[in-house]
Amino acid sequence: MNAGYMARFLRRSSKYQLWKLLISSNKLLQQQSVGLSHNQFGGGLEFPNAPSTVLDTIDLSSNDLQGPITMSIFKRKELSLSCNMFNGAIQFDILLGVSNILNTLDLSYNNLSVITNSVQEPYSLPCINILDLHTNRLRGNMLNVLPPLAVYIDLSSNYFTSSIPADIGENFGRTIFFSVSNNNVIGVIPKSICNGSSLQAVDLSKNNLSGRIPACMPAMSQTLGLNLRRNNLSGPIPNTFPSDCSLKTLDLNGNSPTGRIPKS
Which run of H or of E encompasses 96? Predict the structure, then answer.
């Protein structure tokens, strides 16, 4: 069975249990990339513990897969399991074990949590470029372990209740997009966020942030969109917009700013 025939067969076999196909077919593990998104695969997901396989990219997004995620599947460069019904907890220490491999991780739109209790700080995922974990049941201190080289980080619509780390901007050397919206994040917006010289979109909306908007935020050179709506921010809107300001959207709805509206 050649690779092209297998791909067509799998795409047509939407009613089969995916784990049965994975286990029964060694051909699948011999492919470098497998894309089976937007089907109707259901049931649980098992994956052979085969670290020597050449398979480094897996996309099973937008299916009906459920249950816990087999941790051996994380030993890839790119993994997308978004828009399924996975639940249970992911052991963060196992993710650390493959952190020198994993480049793209998309687990969004599931029902997952992450366990970090057994891991000693400091820790991070140094090689991840894309981290999308939005719309899950994440709690704890994930905001302290942001990947330092990521260009895209989405932690929105989870259950975070901690404050934003004071040095969070130190992890934004390459970050273009950062969102932690629709959580219950508390405390102030740290000034270090302005160190994100590549940030184009920042979404901190729908949290419980308080205090003033850092004066440096409107002056961030690359930022096109800044969403701070539905927090408890107060004080004047910083009048630090540069003449060549790149900001296109500033959303402060649902806060308590005072003073005059700065000139655009």
Answer: helix 92-97
